[in-house]
## 1
Amino acid sequence: MQEFSLIEHYFTRHALARDDVLLGIGDDAALCQVPAGQVLVTSVDTLVEGVHFPLDTAPFDVGYKALAVNLSDMAAMGAQPAWFTLALTLPHQQADWLAGFTQGLSHLAQQYQVALIGGDTTRGHLTITVQIMGFCPPDLVLKRQGASPGDEIYVTGTLGDAGLALKALQGEIDLPKDALEQVLPRLHRPTPRVDTGLALRGQASSAIDISDGLLADLGHLLAGHQLGARLSLPALPLSPVLQHLPTALTWPLALSAGDDYELCFTRPVAPSAQVSQNTAQQLTLLNAHYIGTVTEQPGIICLDAAGHTYNAPSIGGYQHF
Ligand code: ADP
Ligand code: MG
């Protein structure tokens, strides 16, 4: 198949239509309309085979994850995702692989109504780059900077599942088959918390998505202000699989494993009991869990159920260079 018919066959015909796409795939560049009064929010993420996903990952999952990690960046900014481009480098043309990849990508594109508006197709080591674009009113964008001492710290979903799945795939941890089946989707098909990000506009004082582990990413929220945090280990949200592991495994995974793509955010303490009750309900709806407080003292302190300090062993994030 020629390059152009490949693009037409696998990408153009699956691209979702949006009214704000004035010109999509097919020209030298795409034209998109940002709503009046809003700013363009844009981010790019690359997945390299063998680095960001294991060699034998199903093509559906590769397509799914390539878009999911980018949607997660939109979520962390409180942006409404709208459009994306795809730069695809393939070692060879493989119809099965491309069909599966496109299905995974389109599945998530449909779900979040984001349109593929262009890209590039080249030959080489399997590498997928998605650039995502969305919009947000400029005064409502969520940033990493903005936390203050006393702010409450929250995370969505559950922590450590993706890291556990990866360690099991790599043979570092022995997991029963049913447990592995429960955590594998968390590694291959992370849930971008787009709705939570939108609901947090004007509510959160700072936000980040957790790609490198809670301690590392929470550290990014605090570092700019030279603040610290006190975290309650029993408050960390854990899936049933993690709850049943020995704590010597659970806590390092929940605190330091990457790839969960949950949101971590801070918010000022609610001023009155009434507001507090409403926001508690709202946060439950958002699947957000209170895990600790921002402190003036730099450094992150983790306390166990007995109130003892727990020194998290570093399991080290992936360093590209
Ligand atoms: P150019 O030579 O101008 O860079 P290309 O031949 O690379 O154009 O691409 C032709 C059209 O197909 C462009 O509109 C481009 O955005 C689109 N395109 C190329 N590869 C992809 C892809 N993998 N996914 C979506 N659109 C693509
Ligand atoms: Mg090109």
## 2
Amino acid sequence: MSRIEPWWRTAAVYQVYIRSFKDGDGDGTGDIAGLRSRLPYLGDLGVDALWINPWYVSPLLDGGYDVADYRDIDPRFGSVQSATEFIAEAKRHGIKVLVDLVPNHTSWDHQWFQAALAAGPGSPERDRYHFLPGSGPGGAEPPNDWRAVFGGSAWRRVPDGEWYLHLFDISQPDLNWEHPEVRLEFEDILRFWLDRGAAGFRVDVAHSLVKAPGYPDTGDKANEDRLLTAEGESQHPFWDRPGIHAIVRGWRSVLDGYPDVMMVAEAWVANQDRLAAYLRPDEYHQAFDFEFLEAAWGAESMRSAIEESLASTRPVNSIPTWVLSNHDVIRHATRYGLPQGVDAKQWLLDGDRSLLDSALGNRRARAAALLLMALPGSMYVYQGEELGLPEATELPLDVLDDPTWVRSNHTVKGRDGCRVPIPWTIDGLSAGFGSGPSWLPQPDGWSAMSVEAQAGVEESMLELYRAGLALRKEVFVGDLALEWIPSPADAIEFRRGSGVRCVVNLGTEPLSVNGEVLLASEPLADGSLPGNAAVWLR
Ligand code: GLC
């Protein structure tokens, strides 16, 4: 029997990287006006909600994850008024809006950090961050051996000699979550956006926040970011600390005062059991399943990622959150086109370009979309994946904007290639993204993948997403049951509560299937599903 689920348990959420979605004022950067003009498109696509990447006042040194004011919108994107109107208008299209909460760090432009710099060592202003004396003669060395995610030491010295912690870019000082004012401030920020109609939050770096007392060195474990004890508890000095959960429960009690709202965690933790701890009934509603995102193309790896996610969420009465791409990873149409065993990040930097089979990547992306939509739980679509956009791999080095490129001393290329502005039309300077050039250049041929080029074309990726999302509502969200069906080694098959089956052929040999075809990623020939394809059957 089907039961009424809270909306988020089965939602299809569309991720909007606002800088690159649609430019409404011709300055080359996406904005709220542009996004608003595309609400009909998003309504037609059939998504239930949007997650908007940070749109707050920011120097944009990490694409907006360096927030200078959590209660104001950057003028390049709009204003609090236009954001509030946008949220209300989206609601009229049946679309909810999630905003991005960035609690681990602020921008160095934030007034708290500016006050901390001005007030000097030992001041209460410095207590809101992690300021420490250095080590070694004259305190000239960083306080410990912690490394920043983007490269280099996680500490930076200020002119008076103290060092501050930044687990990401130098412009992103980490907040001290032991400080009561920090906790109160963020509860208030939650209320600020909920009062303006937000349906909830995507929480950035949800596995950080708390740091081990005494800031112990990581020593020879410096590169192991997922240290666990024999009992499976995290023993890393700054990732996945036990103290995180009390903070999350505080946020949850704020959210529980509003109807129908939720929060989703971005937590890169050691395994799905660790992730389930964030999904306990008084914590997050959702947490992205990155094991599934990272699973190599293959029946074994994908099935086990799915099984583990279902198994680990069950004891906490939660449900998985499936995702294939986001603004931090190489787009899956490209990942799936690389041979098994090739490290995509390394390949992006200096790999042999002839290894990439784009047609195969696209074909697998179509199949993966049908798998994603058929799974029980919620799912996220990263803008442009519905157009089959690949990673832009050949951006000129002088346009790269991701701080990773500089901080890693040019050893990691960074995430710009998945952040290139969306092509809307076949003609136009930036393929309809804006009226002039876009902040990141679009590769040649981008307009052939535009919305205009695909709309109404039956075999396009866009029409596959439209049909899939519509059908998903009918046959996959009413009943969350999933039953595995024994299948050949290279295939995955399961039946959902409605009786509809999903078969994915991850191998190359055709697979014979039976039943009425509801939707297929490739045409079937004589009742057989070609390799690298998926089908929904009744
Ligand atoms: C998250 C964001 C990423 C950002 C980082 C620091 O991982 O998704 O884009 O750079 O946090 O805020």
